[in-house]
Design goal:
With about 230 residues, the protein is α/β, with parallel strands linked by helices. The chain is about 45% helix and about 15% strand. It has an eight-stranded parallel sheet with strand order 7-6-5-4-3-2-1-8. About 45% of the residues are buried.
């Protein structure tokens, strides 16, 4: 199975999340996403309104991170952050699971934490992705985190913030796809920096790609692929 640049671009969530990013960086990245037909621009909470205004009506949507990057905010705070992001124009939310509570075995907290965001988002048709920070987990824990995310009503599971350890691995994504099959979608994120790796994950069966350099990846596509 071969993919065109346009097909892959539509599956990309292009992240603009570094702490030193300015409004001008948001504008430049939004313009790139529009020009390259990238599916989604992923921004920090305070950038939501600007990003939404820039991509409105273009086919590119806006995802906003919640509890980023450590996931240690209280569920009530994550719920408020989700509510404000939606009011500012977010189409999707990428929330960070409470990794410390998960590793402590407090699975009730983890479900309640995710559900706090889902309960705000679902009535408004907003997609929720749960970032596990898979580099901190065993493969068995990756599977368990998927089950908890599904139990809480999340739409996607996602590997990484990109701010802690390695990015997505084949082994992690295989476990996610097997665990979530038919119940939630999978988004590898982190370390996807070229066309070949992006296509590899898509061929595995993922529905999204979390990237920080959509333009570079798309420009590296084979010539004559129809974009």
């Amino acid at each position: 199975m071969e993919f065109t640049r346009e097909q892959l671009a539509k599956m990309m969530d292009h992240a603009v999340l570094k702490p030193n990013m300015t409004d001008e960086d948001i504008r430049k990245n939004a313009a790139m996403c529009i020009a390259k037909k990238v599916g989604d621009l992923c921004v920090r909470p305070t950038d939501t309104a600007l990003a939404a205004s820039l991509v409105k009506g273009t086919g590119t949507t806006v995802a906003v991170v919640v509890g980023f990057p450590h996931g240690a905010s209280r569920p009530e705070v994550k719920a408020l952050e989700a509510k404000l992001a939606i009011e500012d124009g977010a189409n999707e939310l990428d929330m960070v699971m409470n990794i410390g509570k998960f590793l402590s075995g407090d699975f009730d907290w983890v479900v309640r934490d995710i559900k706090a965001v889902v309960d705000v988002a679902k009535p408004k048709g907003i997609v929720v992705k749960v970032i596990q920070e898979s580099c901190l987990l065993t493969l068995e824990q990756v599977a368990k985190a998927c089950e908890l995310s599904i139990q809480a009503g999340a739409d996607f599971v996602k590997t990484s913030t990109g701010f802690n350890g390695d990015g997505a691995t084949v082994e992690q994504v295989e476990v996610m796809l097997k665990t979530c099959k038919g119940r939630a979608k999978v988004k590898p994120s982190g370390g996807i920096r070229d066309w070949e790796r992006a296509v590899m994950f898509v061929k595995m069966g993922v529905d999204r790609l979390g990237v920080g350099s959509a333009d570079k990846i798309l420009d590296g596509a084979p010539a004559g692929d129809g974009y």
